[in-house]
Amino acid sequence: MKAHFKIALRYIFSKHNFNFITIINFLSLIGIMIGVAALIIVHSIFNAFQQIAIDQIIGFDPHIIIKTNSETDYHKILSSFSTDKNVSSIASVNENRIIAVKGKTARMVNLLAIEDSTNRYLRKLRNTIIVGTTSLLTTESIPRVLIGSGLASAYDVLVGDTLALTTPKEIEGNLLSFSLPDVNNVIIEGIFQSNVKDYDYSYIFANQQIYPSLLEKNDKFSIYIKIKNIDDLIKMQKLFKNKFVNASIFSWKDLNKEFYGVMQFEKMATTFVLSIVLIVAIFNVFASLTMTVLEKKKDISILRAMGATSMFIRKLYLWEGITVGILGTFLGATLGVSLCWGEQSFKWLKLDASKYIMDSIPVELNYLDVLLIMLLSLFLTFSATIYPAYRASKLNIIDSIREE
Length: 404
Known about the structure:
Elements: H1 3-12, H2 20-60, E1 64-68, H3 71-81, E2 87-102, E3 105-115, H4 123-126, E4 129-132, E5 144-148, H5 149-155, E6 162-166, H6 168-177, E7 184-192, H7 197-202, E8 203-207, E9 221-227, H8 233-243, E10 248-251, H9 252-255, H10 257-295, H11 297-305, H12 310-346, H13 367-393, H14 397-403
Parallel strand pairs: 3-8, 5-7
Antiparallel strand pairs: 1-9, 1-10, 2-3, 2-6, 2-9, 4-7, 5-8, 6-7
């Protein structure tokens, strides 16, 4: 063991001299440990909640939307990506705002008329069906639709019941002519519960064989695409943009920019607040080293008189601060990872599964986050030791001995 490191350990863990500086060193170590553990735990919880929120959103929203005015491009896109190995499903979609009526209840809802020859686009929706099926193929005169649990509750309907659909333009025309609106009846084939408020309360899924009067005629064709690996989203979006220059291409992040931005801001804000705990603990390291320099003037002078160089003294105090930082960081990381692993394995913090979509507080450890938090802690600790170490190495030997 090198001499400067051995002396640094003696200063930190003094057996015979338990004083105020020793207490500050101990509190600094505890503070760094708590700060690192808290950052790891909070990041893990945020990662889990963010992933759940994203899964809920992209479970129904398309990963990529392509809109084009060219019918040639429209057919080219459909044929090109229907067999693409990176594409999970592709569908032609016509989205319209309509009015759904049942008895005395009327609501403005979004009608998603989907044409999916492979029947894969609604695969995710099947997992959320609580009553009925997702079969939208119409062999009868009355089309079949899927509605959310919120709408079903508002209309007080079940599978097999009917809804009357009409358009705002139809209502406006009838008001001007003082006549009853023409309505189109549909049968409820299935009820889904996505736990995404917009979908459960304001969306109806149908096949494009639904009444043409409900679908607005426009010159823009919409294609909804889901890809197999969501991590390839940016790469796939760039690929589509390069291949179809005249088309408008949006990703789910573009469609949910505000929501995604809020999630990122909350994570950054919480990280900043918790980092203050770490910064305060590291300031204690700075304070304890500065006081140690003042207290150990005699020791430093004797070491210098015995031949110790300025670099030796500097390393001594650098190692004293860094040792506290390393111990606090690794103990904090161990504590944080252990608590996260325990929550994942044993679900200590329970939630009411009847009210929430999870039965315990979710945790998702990202080891890159853990590594970055540890590196940040070590960097801040090292930065806090530079000035006290420099000051110790520049002490005047003669003046210090005279003062003692």
